[in-house]
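ok here's dITP/XTP pyrophosphatase:
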Amino acid sequence: MKNGERTISSALKNSILLVTSNENKYKEIAEIAKDYKVELEWLKIPKLEIQADTLEEVVRYSAIVIFQLVKRPLIVEDSGLFIKSLNDFPGPYTNYVRRKLGLEGILKLLEGKNDRSAYFKTSLCYIDEARQLLFNGTVNGRISDTIRGEKGFGFDPIFIPEGESRTFAEMSTEEKNRYSHRSKAFKAFLEYYTNQ
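and the structure:
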C-alpha cells in the first residue's frame, strides 16, 4: 500500500476515511489535513454516483451507502465545473463529461463565446454514527483558450482561478490549495471537526 491507502479491513480505528478512487484527490486533501493534525486514511473505492441535479445529493447518497458498509467516520467529496455560457454545464455531470468529451470537447463548445466565466464547486459530506454534515467550497474563474499545464487532473488544464493568469495545472499542489474549491470545502470541515 502507498500514500496512506487502506482497505476496509486494515483501516485504523481512530481516523477519518476519505472515499475516492482518485489518488490525486487524496494527495490534495491529505496535504491540508496535515496542517490540522487530522489523520486521514484513503479508502480506495469509487464513490457511488447517482444521477442528480446537485453535488450535495450525490455525496450525501454515496456517504450514507458506504457508511452502512464500513461503519466508520468517513468523507465523500464530489466536484463540478459550472460554465456560465453553457447554462452551468457540466455541473454535477463533470466527471462523465470529462471522460466522454474531454478538455478539447469543452473548448469546442465554447468556440465563439465571449463569456468564458466559470466556477468550480466541491461538496463534501462527513458522516458518522450521529451526524451527516455538508460542507461546500467554490472558486470563481474562467476557462482558458487552450490546454495549459502538466500538473493537476480533470479540468485543471483549462481552468484559471480569479486573480491568476495560470491554470490549476500550471500550479503546484500547495499553490492550487490557496484557491481550490476542494481546499475551501475541506478546510471548512476541518475547522468544524477540530473545534468540536
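+1. Confidence is low (pLDDT under 50) at residues 5-13.
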